[in-house]
């Protein structure tokens, strides 16, 4: 019994990799007489890479939104030649013209006309994307006479007015007539100060359900907003809704 246990005890000290190495080698190609060749040769690597590029080119041709999707071909060598081109060439995918598809900063940001209509007042704010003051015509800062501090300034708010700026006081600031006169005055100022020259897209952002909401809408649809109305690309409602939060103030009771 001791003799039969000795080989088992000795074999338990040998790891699995050593056992496989010590075992007699067996032929895995018993039914084949062809010689074994290396699979990863340089020519096969090139063929597989070109085949992958060819598959990529066929997929890119089917996609929409590419600037030069119609000019691409299924030949995989065209992509290798594209990578060898200079980045300044308009035919390459690495040029600035094609890189704009991947960069959101190249997309043109619209101007916005914010309208805050509460039951006590109406506020209208005309906003542009952040831009240097020397590039804004209504800022009054020119390139020649601008100081070092003025050249670093950026402007986003072009015009901000409320019904109180038109000498409406107390309860009169929240009326329909005050909001309509305010909207007409703001649209007139935008036109007279030459702010429409840089406006290509305009978004109207409405907030609140005061009397000024309908009054400003009527002014935009009327004769006062003929020039501004042509550039409106979207109308957005940004009224804030309370979800939970602190307890509301007790409503006022009269009588």
Automatic annotation (TrEMBL):
Q: Which residue ranges traverse the bilayer?
A: none
- Among the record's GO biological process terms, what is one? translation
Per the record, the domain of life is Eukaryota
Instruction: Supply the alphabetized keyword list.
Output: Ribonucleoprotein, Ribosomal protein
One cellular-component annotation, GO: ribonucleoprotein complex
Among Pfam families, the record links this protein to: Ribosomal_S11
Q: Which InterPro entries match?
A: Ribosomal_uS11, Ribosomal_uS11_sf
The GO terms describing molecular function are:
structural constituent of ribosome
Q: Which family does it belong to?
A: Belongs to the universal ribosomal protein uS11 family.
Please identify the protein, giving its name as recorded: Translational machinery component
